[in-house]
Amino acid sequence: MTDPWVALEPGTDPAERVRVLRRAHETFTEVGTVPRPVRPVVADSWRRSARAGVGPDGTARVEIADGDLGAYRTEHPLAPVMPLFRELLGSFATDGEHLLAVCDAHGRLLWVEGHPATRRKADRMNFVPGARWAESAVGTNAPGTAVAVDRPVQVFAAEHFIRRVQPWTCAAAPVHDPRTGQVLGAVDITGGDGLAHPHSLGFVQAVARAAESQLALLGPRRAAAGAPELAVLGRDEARLTAGGRGIRLSRRHSEIMVLLARHPEGLTGDELLCALYEDESVTPVTLRAELARLRRVLGPGLLASRPYRLTVPVESDVAAVERRLATGAVAAAASAYAGPLLPASLAPAVVRLRQRLADGLRGALITRRDPDLLADWTHASWGEDDLEAWRALVAVRPSATARARLAALEAELAAPPGWPRAAPR
Q1: What span, in angstroms and rounded, lies between the C-alpha atoms of 121 and 99?
Q2: One domain for residues 131 and 266
Q3: Structural domain that includes position 394
Q4: Is there a domain that residue 140 lies in?
Q5: CB-based contacts of 338: which residues, under 8 Å, 6+ apart?
Q6: Residue 260 forms part of a structural domain
């Protein structure tokens, strides 16, 4: 095949190809080997699906309920380009009895639109907004696999891992943040066998590139028009976006910005000293010098004194997680949580905030008992030793890997002091 990412070569009989793929799929699910006619991209995806514990008779689960979905979609970075997706793909989907779908970077469907009759059929397999279509959850499928491999991909008929999806054909392409290169999600077109044509893959890839171009144009203007944004989760040094420019702050300046962003009324010098320094011998002169340096970094007009305060509201990723938790949007909160707040910081107030945020999200995940969300948490670096989270995961998804990791953690907890730690997963 000239292009391994295209499902059918020109001139291939789709019906015969379906019969071959069904036999290959049965062989793989029965004995674990992939016959030669299966494309390498699909074979690799089948193997990943099996390792993730996906069964061929499984189904997608709705992970984000209606109440959470609206807030999550509104704040998602792909929301500004939905009008573009509808303009370029909407009529194509409706006229061709297809569906336009957009997922996030975790494979959760955010929008599913198109021909009404096709939507009703898709509803029966939970191809609906809020459902998780990650490859690790439902196996090989275009949006989930495109996100997994970060490549545009077609999935034709019985190339899908789950049998109930095999009547469908889809093509999807990942969409990236034009500033960071991070995968934001994928845009997908789903329908019948006709979508296996090479043009559909090229079309959806072109739409994804157009969306990235529009995001590049929108990003600087939005940053300049809106409040400054502070990113502090999962990183030791904050990134402040203000006035269309990104500023990387030192660790101490990052801590100061976190505290001032949380206290728009301002903090006195003594309050900042207590919040920032464990060492009581640190003098106000040291703090004033740090604040003077921070003022030069930020530029004129953003940092005021008596008390120390920011002159405009600053939006932070910490506040976004807290808002979602407060409204019960647990899946959205977990998606926004990029890691612990300034993990290397020893500033007393930052340590308290870091622990409170992590405990709040962790508790919400355990209460929610969603196996996919718990798996995401326990397989992240900050959750790999979280005993209670592993116990919660084993209670709802008792895989061999999860049980083994839980047993290792419990053995470590029971071991006398000084014994070697359990080996990592």
Answers
A1: 11
A2: no
A3: 369-425
A4: yes
A5: 231, 233, 234, 235, 317
A6: yes
Same domain, 30 and 105: yes
**CA angle centred on 203, ends 200 and 204, rounded to 5°:** 90
Same domain for 243 and 279?
A: yes
Name the nearest CA neighbour of 259 among 189, 351, 167, 371: 351
Has this prediction a pTM greater than 0.85? no
CB 186, CB 201: distance < 8 Å: no
Last residue of a domain, one of 363, 382, 412: 363
With tokens 């009759």, the residue in question is 117
- Residues 37, 158 contacting (CB under 8 angstroms): no
Two structure tokens written together for 128: 């609906």
* Residues facing residue 187 across a β-bridge: 102, 173
Has residue 5 been placed in a domain?
no
Same structural domain for residues 121 and 182?
Answer: yes
Same domain, 135 and 271: no
Q: What are the distances in angstroms from CA 335 to CA 4, 48, 64, 76, 175? A: 32, 22, 11, 10, 17
358 and 382 share a domain?
Answer: no
Establish if 72 belongs to a structural domain. Answer: yes
For each of the chain's 425 residues, which pLDDT tens digit applies? 456 777 777 667 878 888 999 999 999 999 888 887 899 999 999 999 999 889 999 999 998 877 778 888 888 899 999 999 999 998 888 888 999 999 999 999 999 999 999 999 999 999 999 999 999 999 999 999 999 999 999 999 999 999 999 999 999 999 998 877 789 999 999 998 888 778 888 899 999 999 998 888 775 444 434 578 999 999 999 999 987 788 999 999 999 999 999 998 999 988 999 999 887 778 889 889 999 999 999 888 889 988 999 999 898 999 988 988 887 778 778 888 999 999 999 999 999 999 999 999 999 999 988 888 899 899 899 999 999 999 999 999 998 989 999 999 999 888 776 655 544 44
- How far apart, in whole angstroms, are the C-alpha atoms of residue 4 and residue 400? 34
Query: Which amino acid is present at 127?
Result: F
Q: Domain containing 191 — which CATH number?
A: 3.30.450.40
pLDDT digits (tens, 9 = 90+) for 281-311: 788 898 899 999 999 998 888 899 889 999 9
Rounded distance, CA 84 to CA 246, Å?
27
Place of tokens 């059929």: 121
Domain-terminating residue out of 201, 223, 245: 223
